[in-house]
Amino acid sequence: MKNFKTVRLAFLTVLMLSFYISCANDDDGGGSGGANSELVGTWYMLTYNGEEADECERKTNIQVMADGRLVLQEYGETTTCTLIMEIPGDYTIEGNVVTIDTNLPMVPLITLTFSISDGILTTEGTNPLSGIYGINTWTKNP
């Protein structure tokens, strides 16, 4: 079970990094049909692959900035709820697809599809490192 949690954490990290980078930047700097304005802000995790996030995991967030940057903060339980990692990145948006670049040499570009409905952000994509497909939901209300 601990191994599953580690794989899940790695996948979540890649998904969040991918989303954050893709949503924060635009190649021409002019936005993407209003999608940026909806995505800009801090999004907190609600679910991970259909499983409701626990109290600690709900602190995990993606800060999407209008200038094409993002920051992922991932929280997890060790003995207490702790910030495990903070990863900055850049993003671009084309339609409902975000591409995230963590600028980390071992992490390929991350591509996710996204939608926003009733204040809930849904991200879908495959972890380029593990090949695992995932669907996560996010809210701006912590």
Layout of strands and helices, then pairs:
Elements: H1 2-24, H2 35-39, E1 41-48, E2 51-52, E3 61-64, E4 69-77, E5 81-94, E6 97-101, E7 110-117, E8 120-126, E9 133-139
Antiparallel strand pairs: 1-2, 1-3, 1-9, 3-4, 4-5, 5-6, 6-7, 7-8, 8-9
Describe this entry's structure for a reader.
The protein is an alpha+beta fold and 142 residues long. The protein has one domain (2-139): Beta Barrel (Lipocalin). The chain has helices at residues 2-24, 35-39, and strands spanning 41-48, 51-52, 61-64, 69-77, 81-94, 97-101, 110-117, 120-126, 133-139. The protein has an eight-stranded antiparallel beta barrel. The longest helix is centred in the first third of the chain and has 23 residues, at 2-24. It is globular and about 40 Å long. It starts with a helix and ends with a strand. Residues 1-7 and 16-35 have low confidence and may be disordered.
Based on the model shown, name its key terms.
20% helix, 142 residues, alpha+beta, single chain, Lipocalin, 2 helices, 9 strands
Total DSSP helices? 2
Strands across the major sheet, in which order?
1-3-4-5-6-7-8-9
Biggest sheet details: 8 strands, antiparallel, barrel
Q: Please tell me the total number of domains.
A: 1
Say how many strands there are: 9
Radius of gyration: 14 Å
- Unreliable spans: 1-7, 16-35
Order of helices and strands: HHEEEEEEEEE
Coarse structural class: alpha+beta
Which architecture would the CATH scheme give at its second level? Answer: Beta Barrel
Quaternary state of this entry equals: single chain
Name of the CATH first level: Mainly Beta
**Mean of pLDDT:** 80
CATH topology: Lipocalin
Cα-to-Cα separation, first versus last residue = 27 Å
What is the helical fraction, as a range of percent?
10-25%
Q: What is the global morphology?
A: globular
Strand fraction equals over 45%
